[in-house]
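can u do me a favor
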Protein backbone atom coordinates (compact mmCIF):
# COMPACT_ATOMS: atom_id res chain seq x y z
CA UNK A 1 0.00 0.00 0.00
CA UNK A 2 1.39 3.44 -0.89
CA UNK A 3 2.61 5.64 1.92
CA UNK A 4 0.95 8.94 2.56
CA UNK A 5 2.90 11.89 1.10
CA UNK A 6 2.45 13.77 4.41
CA UNK A 7 5.33 13.70 6.87
CA UNK A 8 4.84 11.16 9.65
CA UNK A 9 4.51 13.80 12.40
CA UNK A 10 1.73 15.57 10.51
CA UNK A 11 -0.11 12.28 9.84
CA UNK A 12 0.00 11.43 13.55
CA UNK A 13 -1.18 14.93 14.53
CA UNK A 14 -4.01 14.84 11.97
CA UNK A 15 -5.01 11.35 13.12
CA UNK A 16 -5.12 12.46 16.78
CA UNK A 17 -7.31 15.43 15.82
CA UNK A 18 -9.65 13.17 13.85
CA UNK A 19 -9.99 10.77 16.79
CA UNK A 20 -10.68 13.71 19.13
CA UNK A 21 -13.56 14.69 16.81
CA UNK A 22 -14.98 11.18 17.13
CA UNK A 23 -13.73 9.70 13.84
CA UNK A 24 -12.92 6.01 14.05
CA UNK A 25 -9.93 4.52 12.28
CA UNK A 26 -10.75 2.06 9.49
CA UNK A 27 -10.60 -1.55 10.54
CA UNK A 28 -11.27 -5.15 9.62
CA UNK A 29 -12.47 -8.20 11.50
CA UNK A 30 -11.26 -11.75 11.89
CA UNK A 31 -14.54 -13.15 13.21
CA UNK A 32 -13.30 -16.72 13.74
CA UNK A 33 -10.94 -15.36 16.42
CA UNK A 34 -13.05 -12.52 17.81
CA UNK A 35 -10.49 -9.96 16.67
CA UNK A 36 -10.96 -6.52 15.13
CA UNK A 37 -7.91 -4.60 13.92
CA UNK A 38 -7.78 -0.85 13.37
CA UNK A 39 -5.38 0.66 10.85
CA UNK A 40 -4.69 3.79 8.87
CA UNK A 41 -4.49 4.02 5.07
CA UNK A 42 -0.67 4.21 5.08
CA UNK A 43 -0.30 0.99 7.16
CA UNK A 44 0.39 -2.32 5.48
CA UNK A 45 -2.67 -4.58 5.56
CA UNK A 46 -3.88 -7.59 3.65
CA UNK A 47 -6.31 -5.96 1.23
CA UNK A 48 -8.40 -9.01 0.35
CA UNK A 49 -10.43 -9.80 3.49
CA UNK A 50 -11.48 -13.25 2.34
CA UNK A 51 -7.93 -14.32 1.45
CA UNK A 52 -6.63 -12.81 4.69
CA UNK A 53 -9.09 -14.84 6.77
CA UNK A 54 -7.99 -17.99 4.95
CA UNK A 55 -4.29 -17.16 5.42
CA UNK A 56 -4.74 -16.65 9.17
CA UNK A 57 -6.76 -19.87 9.47
CA UNK A 58 -4.16 -21.79 7.46
CA UNK A 59 -1.23 -20.41 9.50
CA UNK A 60 -2.95 -21.29 12.77
CA UNK A 61 -3.82 -24.76 11.48
CA UNK A 62 -0.16 -25.34 10.54
CA UNK A 63 1.17 -24.00 13.84
CA UNK A 64 -1.56 -25.64 15.93
CA UNK A 65 -0.87 -23.43 18.97
CA UNK A 66 -1.91 -24.92 22.28
CA UNK A 67 -2.73 -23.22 25.59
CA UNK A 68 0.78 -23.81 27.03
CA UNK A 69 2.72 -22.61 23.96
CA UNK A 70 4.81 -19.46 23.69
CA UNK A 71 5.00 -18.10 20.15
CA UNK A 72 7.24 -15.49 18.49
CA UNK A 73 5.74 -13.55 15.55
CA UNK A 74 8.37 -11.68 13.54
CA UNK A 75 7.22 -8.82 11.28
CA UNK A 76 3.95 -8.75 13.25
CA UNK A 77 2.66 -5.45 11.85
CA UNK A 78 -0.71 -4.51 13.32
CA UNK A 79 -1.20 -7.97 14.85
CA UNK A 80 -2.93 -9.74 11.95
CA UNK A 81 -1.49 -13.14 12.95
CA UNK A 82 -0.31 -12.22 16.46
CA UNK A 83 -3.72 -11.53 17.97
CA UNK A 84 -5.45 -14.68 16.65
CA UNK A 85 -2.41 -16.67 17.88
CA UNK A 86 -2.80 -15.08 21.30
CA UNK A 87 -6.38 -16.37 21.49
CA UNK A 88 -4.97 -19.93 21.45
CA UNK A 89 -1.43 -19.79 22.90
CA UNK A 90 -0.22 -19.03 26.41
CA UNK A 91 1.87 -16.06 25.29
CA UNK A 92 2.78 -14.38 22.00
CA UNK A 93 5.61 -11.91 21.40
CA UNK A 94 5.34 -9.75 18.29
CA UNK A 95 8.36 -7.98 16.80
CA UNK A 96 7.92 -5.23 14.23
CA UNK A 97 10.38 -2.79 12.68
CA UNK A 98 7.90 -0.32 11.21
CA UNK A 99 7.70 2.98 13.07
CA UNK A 100 4.41 3.40 14.88
CA UNK A 101 3.09 -0.08 14.10
CA UNK A 102 4.03 -1.45 17.52
CA UNK A 103 1.81 1.15 19.19
CA UNK A 104 -1.03 0.30 16.82
CA UNK A 105 -0.56 -3.42 17.53
CA UNK A 106 -0.66 -2.73 21.29
CA UNK A 107 -3.80 -0.66 20.77
CA UNK A 108 -5.41 -3.46 18.76
CA UNK A 109 -4.61 -5.94 21.53
CA UNK A 110 -6.11 -3.61 24.13
CA UNK A 111 -9.29 -2.99 22.13
CA UNK A 112 -9.72 -6.76 21.81
CA UNK A 113 -9.03 -7.44 25.49
CA UNK A 114 -5.99 -9.59 24.69
CA UNK A 115 -3.47 -9.44 27.54
CA UNK A 116 -1.14 -12.38 26.82
CA UNK A 117 0.73 -10.60 24.06
CA UNK A 118 3.77 -8.29 24.10
CA UNK A 119 4.97 -6.15 21.20
CA UNK A 120 8.50 -4.87 20.66
CA UNK A 121 10.05 -2.65 18.01
CA UNK A 122 13.14 -4.08 16.40
CA UNK A 123 14.71 -5.16 13.15
CA UNK A 124 13.67 -8.82 13.14
CA UNK A 125 15.86 -9.55 10.11
CA UNK A 126 19.05 -7.96 11.49
CA UNK A 127 21.60 -10.34 12.94
CA UNK A 128 23.24 -9.10 16.12
CA UNK A 129 26.64 -7.57 15.56
CA UNK A 130 29.61 -9.26 17.19
CA UNK A 131 30.63 -7.67 20.47
CA UNK A 132 33.77 -5.58 20.44
CA UNK A 133 35.97 -4.93 23.41
CA UNK A 134 35.13 -1.66 25.10
CA UNK A 135 37.90 0.86 25.35
CA UNK A 136 37.96 3.51 28.05
CA UNK A 137 34.31 2.96 28.95
CA UNK A 138 33.04 3.85 25.47
CA UNK A 139 29.89 2.09 24.35
CA UNK A 140 30.21 -0.14 21.27
CA UNK A 141 28.58 1.10 18.08
CA UNK A 142 25.22 -0.47 17.26
CA UNK A 143 23.45 -0.74 13.95
CA UNK A 144 20.51 1.66 13.98
CA UNK A 145 17.26 -0.29 14.22
CA UNK A 146 18.95 -3.43 15.51
CA UNK A 147 17.68 -4.54 18.88
CA UNK A 148 21.11 -5.78 19.86
CA UNK A 149 21.91 -9.06 21.53
CA UNK A 150 21.08 -7.96 25.09
CA UNK A 151 17.68 -6.49 24.18
CA UNK A 152 16.73 -9.50 22.09
CA UNK A 153 17.84 -11.81 24.89
CA UNK A 154 15.70 -10.01 27.46
CA UNK A 155 12.73 -9.89 25.11
CA UNK A 156 12.93 -13.53 24.09
CA UNK A 157 14.18 -14.94 27.37
CA UNK A 158 10.91 -16.64 28.27
CA UNK A 159 9.95 -17.63 24.72
CA UNK A 160 10.87 -21.16 23.74
CA UNK A 161 11.27 -22.12 20.09
CA UNK A 162 8.08 -23.50 18.65
CA UNK A 163 8.46 -27.16 17.66
CA UNK A 164 7.97 -27.84 13.97
CA UNK A 165 6.84 -31.41 14.52
CA UNK A 166 5.14 -32.90 17.55
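np, heres the sequence
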Amino acid sequence: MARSPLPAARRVRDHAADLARGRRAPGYRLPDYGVELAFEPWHFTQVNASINRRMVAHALALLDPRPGDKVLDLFCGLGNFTLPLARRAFEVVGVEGGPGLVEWARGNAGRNGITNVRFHRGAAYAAPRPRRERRSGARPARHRGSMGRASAGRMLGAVQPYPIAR
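The first strand starts at residue 27 and ends at 30. hope that helps!!
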